[in-house]
Amino acid sequence: MLKEAITYSIPKDHSVRLVQMTDPHLFAEPDGNLLGVNTANSLAAVVSTVQALNYPADLLLATGDISQDFSAESYRNFVKAIAPLDLPCHYLPGNHDDPRIMNLHMQGERVFGQQRIIIGNWQLILLDSTVRGKPGGHLDESEFALIREAIAAEPDKHVLLVMHHNPVQVKCTWLDQHWMDNGAEFLAEMASYPQVKGMLWGHVHQQLDHTIDGQHGPINLMATPSTCIQFKPLSTYFALDMVQPGYRLLELRADGSMQTSVYRVPGERFSPDVKASGY
Ligand SMILES: Nc1ncnc2c1ncn2[C@@H]1O[C@@H]2COP(=O)(O)O[C@H]2[C@H]1O
Ligand SMILES: [Fe+2]
């Protein structure tokens, strides 16, 4: 049975404006760092950068790997860190999250774990692509069923599919072993639905903007940098990139088209240990 969606009422001819933040990898302790980057500080820098823009966003999407240590405090720290944005936050799990602890501790008046959002002319579907105990992803049949039922329930809404794992390979050999392993099947089915206009994910700690031809028009594929460490694009072996922490803004237009850009923290404040060989 399809669970009820959260509905935001904005005029149907208005654009929906989203901020996406992904892979903050927070710790319980404020001095926790991942390969030389203090992840609480880098998230705070991203939040300040977004705040300074005064972007009239409707929602914040947090696309997984909220935690690096599976602690309750790491999730509470995330909720506190995003408070200055004063936006409703919708989250989904990544491979470094514990869904039970996450759902218990991602608590706030406007913090939500539900899978469907109806806003303006759009339906946002938040998918769980995680596989217990594994870094790689897979989309279960139940998630396919959710998408089919959600589209059938709201056939007039454009659809943005949001998830943690990449359904396409990014040409980083070491990282592509952890992609959504049935991504090809997923893409093939989604390309047959006229409603599906975009797919948005995290996990790969790098930007990717790519368009594929669906059977009814283009579908935007979008990956977003982490708010902490960045992976070097097109690398065979694990390698970090020196580009700064980032986030993405999206404007989903009422006609089903979209405008989106990735932004990064200005300056060179965050420099990871480039000799690191993994985590
Ligand atoms: N050297 C490595 N080789 C393969 N996988 C790795 C390596 N280092 C880390 N990983 C895993 O690959 C994942 C990719 O992004 P995540 O943030 O999910 O977390 C990473 C780790 O779980
Ligand atoms: Fe991650």
TrEMBL record:
Tell me yes or no: is Membrane among this UniProt entry's keywords: no
Provide this UniProt record's keywords sorted from A to Z: cAMP, Hydrolase, Iron, Metal-binding, Nucleotide-binding
* Reactions listed under catalytic activity: 3',5'-cyclic AMP + H2O = AMP + H(+)
CDD domains reported in the protein's UniProt record: MPP_GpdQ
The protein's matches in Gene3D superfamilies, at most eight in alphabetical order, are given as: 3.60.21.10
Q: Does the keyword Nucleus apply?
A: no
Where AMP binds, per the record, is at 25, 65, 95-96, 205
| Binding sites annotated in the UniProt record for Fe cation 1 | 23, 25, 65, 205
| Record SUPFAM superfamilies | Metallo-dependent phosphatases
Residues that coordinate or bind Fe cation 2: 65, 95, 164, 203
Required co-factor(s) are:
Fe(2+)
Supply the EC number(s): 3.1.4.53
GO MF terms listed in the record are: 3',5'-cyclic-AMP phosphodiesterase activity; metal ion binding; nucleotide binding
* Role played: Hydrolyzes cAMP to 5'-AMP. Plays an important regulatory role in modulating the intracellular concentration of cAMP, thereby influencing cAMP-dependent processes.
Listed name of the protein:
3',5'-cyclic adenosine monophosphate phosphodiesterase CpdA
Organism, scientific name: Shewanella mangrovi
